[in-house]
Amino acid sequence: MDYTNFSKEQLIQMIEEQKLLKDQLPGGEKPPLLLDFSWAGNLGLWYWNVQTNTVTFNPLKATNLGYTKEELPEEVTYQFFTTKIHPDDYANVMGVMMDHLQGKASAYEVEYRIRTKDGDYKWYYDLGKITKYDDQGKPLFLAGVVFDVTEKKEIQLELLIKNKILGELSMLDGLTKVKNVRALLEHLKAKINRSIQLNEPLSIAVFDLDNFKKINNTKGQFYGDLVLVNLAQIMESRVQNTDLVGRFSGEKFMIIFPNTSGDLARSISEQIRQAIEQQYLEDDITITGGVKEYAGESIENFIQGADANWYLGKTQGKNRIV
Q1: Pick from 285, 314, 286, 275: which is nearest to 219 by CA?
Q2: Of 68, 132, 145, 261, whose CB is crowded by the most CB atoms within 10 A?
Q3: What is the DSSP letter of 288?
Q4: Is there a contact between 143 and 11 (Cβ–Cβ < 8 Å)?
Q5: Which residues pair with 202 in a beta bridge?
Q6: Domain definitions of the chain by residue range
Q7: Domain 172-315 carries which CATH code?
Q8: What CATH number was assigned to the domain covering residues 8-155?
Q9: Which residues are catalytic, by number?
């Protein structure tokens, strides 16, 4: 990980240098605890004596959580910090540390949330390494460096939310707020694959307003747009959560019915047709639909089949679901 121009390898090198410095200090002296580098969020070094289970650390690591120096125990154990780790992060942190202690990982490197004194959480990035072993090769001493990366995490979360919103908007029709043609086709491809794998029925219905141009010409485009929005709402109100409504183009809509036979999809489509025409009885607005059950064809032929049924409904007269 890169924290203000320094890599993980550079950080480990600094930890190793701190170990060499400690080994040269007279007995009883504590090692320096704050690396003299202006890394963002740097809270200094920590040292864990595995045998005594005591941790020596720069006070910033604790005061950053809202504790005063006077509130810290005379001897701080490893558990002083680990008990404050967010429950959702605890198992991962312990697993990462165990992997390093058992020689499965060259370093201990992890990000986690840690509880502050007032109950909030901050994000810490921890990087440590075993610096001394006993004669049997068991870890005796670890040294590491810790950073407060809360601000970075908040920025990442904000970007993630914005990207998610943008991603969702890119799949919606700007006017009706139902799925657009891109989303419809992606969803239909996925449902075709599922239908093949699980041998489940799959149906689609295409709808087209009759004489929509006349509606725009006589009542204006604004009214025509309101009609399209209302049509989408009626369709969504009469399908199941597993079904998908989308605007295919212009005044043309599609509904994808997973695990639904053609007969059932046709029955639901007829209910939708009746609801729409009942609402716009005075305006003489009618709608025609074509339904097709999937029969192993390509996605193009599947849609064309529904279109063919729609055209058949048009040629046989309005008010038809075929």
Answers
A1: 285
A2: 145
A3: E
A4: no
A5: 258
A6: 8-155, 172-315
A7: 3.30.70.270
A8: 3.30.450.20
A9: 251
